[in-house]
From TrEMBL:
Protein name: Transposase
Lineage: Bacteria, Pseudomonadati, Pseudomonadota, Gammaproteobacteria, Pseudomonadales
Residue ranges constituting the Insertion element IS402-like domain according to the UniProt record: 98-162
Native source organism of the sequence: Pseudomonas veronii 1YdBTEX2
One Pfam family per UniProt: DUF4096
Length: 181
C-alpha cells in the first residue's frame, strides 16, 4: 500500500471558494484572503500552504497599480569624461600622452640641464608619456607599445622618479608649497 502522507489542509473541494474570494477581492493581499477564507471555513493554514492552494486552484495574484499619475523618471545627470576629455590633439599619439601645454608646465621638473654622463637616448617627455600610458591603461610594463622606449628603461625611470619624489626632491618643493595653500 503506497504512502499517501498527511491529507491536505485545504482540499480540492475548497478551490471554488478560494476562486470566489479571489475574484471578489482581486487586489487584496494574501493575508486578507487567508482571513476571509478562515472566516468562512474556520480553517487556518500556514501562508506557504495557502499560497500552494491558491496556485493549485489556478489563481494568479495581481498587484495593485500605484495610485496617482505616471511621471517618467528624470533623466540621469551624466558624469565622468566628456568629449572634451576624449579629444586627441595632433601631438598626442595616445590619449594618455601629454599635450604641448601640459609638457611646458612640467618640463622643468623632468629636464636636467648640464648633467654629467652620457646624454639620454630618449627624451624625458617620451619616458613620461610611457609612464602615463601604463598608469592610464593599467597594462603591465612589458606590454608597452613599440613606439615607446623599451619597457625596462621606462620602468627604471619611473622607479627613479618615484624614489626622488619620496626622498623630498628639491625641485618639487615649490609645487608642494603651492599645493599646501
Amino acid at each position: 500500500m503506497p504512502k499517501t502522507g498527511r491529507p491536505p489542509v485545504i482540499a480540492a473541494e475548497h478551490y471554488p471558494l478560494l476562486t470566489r474570494l479571489a475574484h471578489a477581492q482581486p487586489y487584496s493581499s494574501q493575508a486578507e484572503l487567508e482571513q476571509a477564507f478562515h472566516a468562512e471555513t474556520g480553517i487556518t493554514a500556514h501562508p506557504d500552504t495557502f499560497a500552494k492552494a491558491l496556485k493549485l486552484a489556478g489563481i494568479v495574484r495581481v498587484k495593485e497599480r500605484a495610485k496617482g499619475s505616471f511621471q517618467p523618471p528624470e533623466p540621469r545627470k551624466s558624469y565622468g569624461y566628456t568629449e572634451a576629455h576624449r579629444r586627441q590633439l595632433p601631438e598626442q599619439r595616445y590619449p594618455s600622452c601629454l599635450t604641448d601645454a601640459e609638457w611646458t608646465l612640467v618640463a622643468d621638473l623632468f629636464e636636467v640641464s648640464g648633467g654629467r654622463g652620457v646624454p639620454p637616448r630618449h627624451s624625458r617627455r617620451t619616458l613620461l608619456e610611457a609612464c602615463c600610458y601604463v598608469v592610464r591603461t593599467g597594462c603591465s610594463w612589458r606590454m608597452l607599445p613599440h613606439e615607446f622606449p623599451h619597457w625596462d628603461n621606462v620602468y627604471k625611470t619611473f622607479r627613479w622618479w618615484s624614489c626622488l619624489l619620496c626622498s623630498g626632491w628639491t625641485p618639487l618643493a615649490p609645487w608642494y608649497r603651492l599645493a599646501a595653500l
